[in-house]
Amino acid sequence: MNATLDGPRWWHGATLYQIYVRSWRDTDADGYGDLPGVIAGLDYLQWLGIDGIWLSPTMPSPDQDWGYDVSDYLAVHPEFGTLADMDKLIAEAGQRGIKVVLDLVPNHTSSAHAWFTDARSGRDSAHRGYYVWADPVKGEAGGSPPNNWRDATGGSAWTLDDASGQYYLHNFLPVMPDLNWWEPRVHEEFREIIRFWLDRGVAGFRVDVAHGLYKDAQLRDNPPLIGGGRLDGGFGLRPVYSSHQPETHAVYRDWRKICDGYTPQRLLLGETWMGDLGKMASYYGQNDELDLAFNFPFVFSEFSADALAGVVDRTLVALPAGASPVWMASNHDISRFPTRWGGGDERKARLALLVLATLPGTTTFYYGDEIAMADVAVPTELRRDRFTPGVGAGGRDAARTPMQWDASPSAGFTADGVTPWLPFGDHATRNVAAQREDPGSTLRLTRDLLALRRAAFGGHVARYERLPAPPGVWSYRSGSLLVTANFTGGPVPGPTGEVLAATEPGAVPGAALGPWQGLITRAS
Question: By Cβ atoms counted within 10 A, which residue in 125, 242, 278, 385 is the most buried?
Answer without folding.
Answer: 242
